[in-house]
Amino acid sequence: MGKLRGLVAYLLPMILVPVGTLLLAGGYVLAGGFGRSGGVMAAPVGMGPSVPVILPEAGLVALPVLFTFTAFCVMVGLQWSLKSRGTLSSVVATVGVVGVVGGTLGLCGWQAGSSIGVVGPVLSALTPVTLAYAVVDPGSSMLETLSGSGGLTAARASLAIGAVISSLIYMFVVYGIRANMVRNFDFTVRRLAGER
After folding, report:
1. Which of 52, 81, 88, 181 has its CB surrounded by the most CB atoms within 10 Å?
2. What is the distance between the alpha carbons of residues 22 and 139, in angstroms, rounded to a whole number?
3. What's the number of domains the chain is made of?
4. SS3 content of the chain, % helix, strand, coil (to 5)
5. Pairing, β 41-42 against β 51-52
6. Which residues contact 73 (CB under 8 A, 6 or more apart)?
7. Residue 87 sits in which domain range?
8. 141, 116 contact by CB (below 8 A)
């Protein structure tokens, strides 16, 4: 647990840079562009009702997902470093696992966000990449929900709910991997040392 906390704390500045940027952009939208002519609204791809160019709550929605996804990546790396004899093999395995999980969830969330009403934005929040796409370009990333009866309010609420669900899922996975590592630590160390 100490390694997880230390690595996440070390990575925290890299998490805060995109979150801070999203908070600043969201504040700009919330302030109405500080009197900018034309405002901060844009027409979505389907030419439905205008939506903000970026959701005002973008940074607040992105922070828990980025934080817990980073913890997930760190914990997968710690698990593979414990199971592997070499550094290179643990790095390759970690990148592979995170790539498959993130890629699969990302592609599903990317497609679902624009083509499934209400549930689509929830699925868009499963990875930081698709969540960033949803908050930065809500007009095309949540098109089906925006053009439905709920409109922008339903899309924003679904995205926030999806961020909470996604964060909880990653937290449970992190604690599950940790519990497994603690339970099997002695066996794994003996196996790597060549003992039975």
Report:
1. 52
2. 17
3. 1
4. 80, 0, 20
5. antiparallel
6. 94, 98
7. 2-190
8. no
Compute and round to an integer the Cα radius of gyration of the chain: 20
What span, in angstroms and rounded, lies between the C-alpha atoms of 130 and 141? 9
pLDDT in tens, the chain (196 residues): 777 777 778 788 888 888 888 888 888 888 777 777 666 766 655 556 677 778 888 889 999 999 899 889 888 888 888 777 777 888 888 889 888 988 888 888 888 877 887 788 888 888 898 888 888 888 777 877 777 767 878 888 888 999 999 999 999 998 998 888 777 766 665 665 665 5
Whether 78 is covered by a domain: the verdict is yes
Helix segments in 116-150, DSSP class H? 119-124, 128-136, 138-141, 143-147
- Give me the torsion for CA of 71, 73, 75, 77, rounded to 10°: -150
Measured CA to CA, the distance from residue 123 to residue 4 in angstroms comes to: 27
Question: Could you tell me if 160 and 57 are in contact, meaning their C-beta atoms sit under 8 angstroms apart?
Answer: yes
Residue 196 lies in a domain: no
**Within a domain: 112:** yes
Distance (Å, rounded) from C-alpha 114 to C-alpha 188?
44
124 in Cβ contact with 165 (< 8 Å): no
